[in-house]
Amino acid sequence: MGLGRASAMIAAGTFTSRITGLLRTVVLVVAINSFGQAPNAFGVANQLPNSIYMVISAGVLTGVIVPQVVRVSAQKDGGHDFLAKLLTLGALIMGVVTLVATLCAPLLISLFANFGPAEHALATQFAYWCIPQLFFYGMFALLGEILNARKMFAPYAWAPIVNNFVSIAGFILFIVLFGQNRNTLEGWDTSMVITLAGTATLGVVAQTVVLVFFWRRAGIPLKFDFRWRGMGLGHMGKLATWTLLTTLIGQAVGIVQSRTITTASTASGEYASVAASQYAWLVYMLPYSMIILAIGTPYFTRISEHSAAKRHTELRADVGQSIRILGLFTVIAVAAVTAAAVPASRVFTNSPAEAGAMAPVLIAYLVSLVPMGVLFIIQRTFYAYGDARTPFVFTVVQGSLVLVLTLVAAATTPIERLAATVALVQSLSGIVQTIIAVVLLRRKIGPLGLGSTWWALTRFILMAIPAGAAGWAVFMIAGGTEGWMLQGMLQGILGAGAIAVVSVLVYVGLLALFRAPELTVAVDAVRRRRG
Asked: What would the mean pLDDT of 391-411 be, rounded to a whole number?
């Protein structure tokens, strides 16, 4: 499968997944709101399995498993024996970790949140039902990354849609049974906790089952094999040590951020806290997933192939090309979503005032979108060369910056701006991390030939500025914070869409006016895809 077709397939699946995910979140906001103690308690509990999974699995999968699967796929049996052993080992590790984490739910809530007794108790009840997601997240990621490494990208991209539909149905049931806007701590009983948190877990189970179905259809034997001797655990263990340390640093920083933000969780729910930050991050992840993951994932597989075959010239060319293509789309995404930040935030809040409080958090996250596209490619190039130690080094720098600046923010920032300041700290530290990563990659493999790439990104930014201004003008003409775009969730969707469309049209028009060569490449790719 070619890069263009693979990227298009991933983008289509990711787009559908993210749109249904946004709908899922809207239903959840209707049920429990995004401001208040109950949504913050659920937000922390439902984030626990994701946080633990990142420590145990994500870094190891990306940094170790994908390159190894690419290598063993060339074996006579297609690497099936290796995959069976890998699947067995993964299931055992995730099962044990999930059991221990569930038993430690109260301690984990205390670690991640600075809640009062009543809010802590509700969050702990949620956690007992949410943490089992960890096992299914791990198995879903393991199966999906193996399929990706074998150039079977569609199942991993499309399976989360099932999760969203299951969750939407469950959250609607919650609304029917228990009503809307349950954002206070009063009135929560066991049946409400099970309906809400159990629904979230059932959705993750469903998406994993779907992926198992596609795994079997792909002709890969689904069996357990405990004969781990000879599968290279020693080599993978050395790589995994560095990726594990890398993710541990990220999660340690995340704990400090979470505890800082939860201090803004109040009974009145007037300040952006955990839930609002998570929903702002969800909006941020829409362009990240649709652009960076969709385009970057096939490139990572091909970069791994170039590294395994020692095709260093082709690898450098792919690094530059992938960054330019990512930049073409991420730059306008930043401009458009920034211009539409307030109406977009209205989709996940219950009033214009809450939308105004959430919008700065979203904008602060968007500052890092373009650098994160560059970092995605640079970091995975290190992984393709079997180097997990260097990513650890620049992650230590980033984590240290976030830690120090978050503590400074906690001591100096007014509570109403705390969530946005923490988000901005995350973005600025990510920019520093990206710069260091590029320098270290150049030292490792020599000149990257990225001069034309940096100039291309500069052109994109210069053209995106007036495009974003045009989108903001649409918002102001519509009445700004007093206009129709903030009168409801549906109006917020329509308003954000109108702003985005205007911004993109102006951006494309400027690219065409100045005859940007990247636009021609993108148009040709679309034409070939349609053909």
From this structure: 89
CA angle 240, 243, 248 (to 5 degrees): 120
Q: Which residues, including other chains, have CB under 8 Å from residue 217's CB and lie 6 or more apart?
A: none
Q: What are phi and psi of 114, to 5 degrees?
A: -110, 65
> Of 224, 461, 235, 513, nearest to 338 (Cα)?
461
Of 438, 506, 457, give the one whose Cα is nearest residue 327: 457
Q: Centre a 10 Å sphere on the Cβ of residue 2 and count the other Cβ atoms it contains.
A: 13
Query: 276 in helix, strand or coil?
Result: helix
| For residue 333, pLDDT beyond 90 | yes
Mean pLDDT of 4-15: 66
Tell me: pLDDT of 529 over 50. no
Tell me the torsion sign for CA atoms 39, 41, 44, 48.
Answer: negative
Query: Is the separation of the CB atoms in 464 and 335 below 8 Å?
Result: yes
Q: Per-residue pLDDT for 509 more than 90?
A: yes
- C-alpha to C-alpha distance for 468 and 482, rounded to whole angstroms: 20
Q: Which residues of 453-487 are buried (b: 16+ CB within 10 A; e: fewer)?
A: beebbebbeebbeebbebbbebbeebeebebebbe
Q: Distance of alpha carbon 373 from its chain centroid, rounded?
A: 12
Token pair 């739910």 is found at 105
Question: So what's the pLDDT on residue 9?
Answer: 66
Average pLDDT over residues 305-311: 76
C-alpha dist (Å) from residue 330 to 83, 337, 371, 423: 35, 10, 9, 18
Single pTM value for the model:
0.79
What the block records as the tokens of 341 is: 């930040």
CA-based nearest residue to 277, from 167, 425, 178, 166: 425
Backbone angles phi, psi at 188, to 5 degrees: -80, 125
Q: pLDDT-based confidence at 94, cuts 50/70/90?
A: confident
| CA 175/CA 307 separation, integer angstroms | 52
Residue 387 is classified by DSSP as -
Q: In this predicted structure, what is the pLDDT of residue 57?
A: 56
Alpha-carbon gap, residue 341 to 362, rounded angstroms: 7
pLDDT of residue 498: 97
CB 9 within 8 A of CB 161: no
Average pLDDT over residues 360-385: 92
